[in-house]
């Protein structure tokens, strides 16, 4: 790889995406030995000295996270169900010396996680909330990354059609990205408290499936009237961010999800959509995208004009908008934020990656976003290539 030093990180991640791990082609199982690809970097331009060992370790951690996330999303639901996803979380936890917290099935209902439970209760494999927590000594703030982990999305009783359902194994892309990023950040020596929150469910159809008109009590204490069972991601994330706020005491909450088809219309297939209560973080996300090629563009943040789309006569809110022509991607993000509270003093960032999460039939892992995060997000000892650490991974390098 011949590149300038500032492009090394993005180039390494691009190479990682070019060699995905998952395949079920019969020829692959008959291959006598695994292939090994060795990548050598030649730096050009003014700053063309040797690559530091710490930089190489940063590249290694990031690319391993990219390939882990891509493998999870490429794997179909008959293999990557909620049970299997939990095993992936436990493997990362074991590697890092962290025992995950897991709440699942009827315990979700008992403890008030009506969003996650309501979405996943009809599936063969029960839903779960799982948390990996990195709690180093000397931490000065608490950060939570919350990932949407819908391992398959039929749409529920508001069922998707035959052309829109294929590919819905990708609906766990947010949770997969959080897992890969958490592994990379901790291995790089993240110095602040960091929680990875996984909202896992299969949005399936069965006798116990949630119906339109059902009302669920979410972990925030707010009631939600269901008018579209295919608007399920916001329900599980609402429980996740509320847990991050109430139980984990997070100062910064970032949720990431393949949330709305409208995202691809609003910001296109190359730009993730960002919605946040912080102008500083909005600018940081855009700067990060410009520096690495994982582009980001803001959505309109205007709860005083948009949140009325969820008005319900019988509950605190509905889960889907009344007018699909009125900023539906912005509104979907605001639904999640409402379960923290619009007056919450912390930083909330929402990333909708529905379109950029994949390129044709493969997951791209494009949402390992790059440098540009405010310094208050945390730091680690390992150096990162200038202009090249990811928003998740660079939460520990900037």
UniProtKB/TrEMBL annotation:
Q: Which CDD domains match?
A: Peptidase_M17 (cd00433)
Which parts of the sequence belong to the Cytosol aminopeptidase domain?
Answer: 228-235
The yes or no answer to whether the keyword Protease is present is yes
Q: What keywords would UniProt list here?
A: Aminopeptidase, Hydrolase, Protease
Got a GO cellular component term for this one? cytoplasm
What biological processes does GO assign it?
A: proteolysis
GO terms, molecular function:
manganese ion binding; metalloaminopeptidase activity
Say which domain of life the source belongs to: Eukaryota
Q: Which family does it belong to?
A: Belongs to the peptidase M17 family.
- Keyword check for Membrane: no
In Swiss-Prot or TrEMBL terms, this protein is called: Probable aminopeptidase NPEPL1 isoform X3
Organism whose genome encodes this protein: Neophocaena asiaeorientalis asiaeorientalis (Yangtze finless porpoise)
Instruction: List the SUPFAM superfamilies hit by this protein, alphabetically.
Output: Zn-dependent exopeptidases (SSF53187)
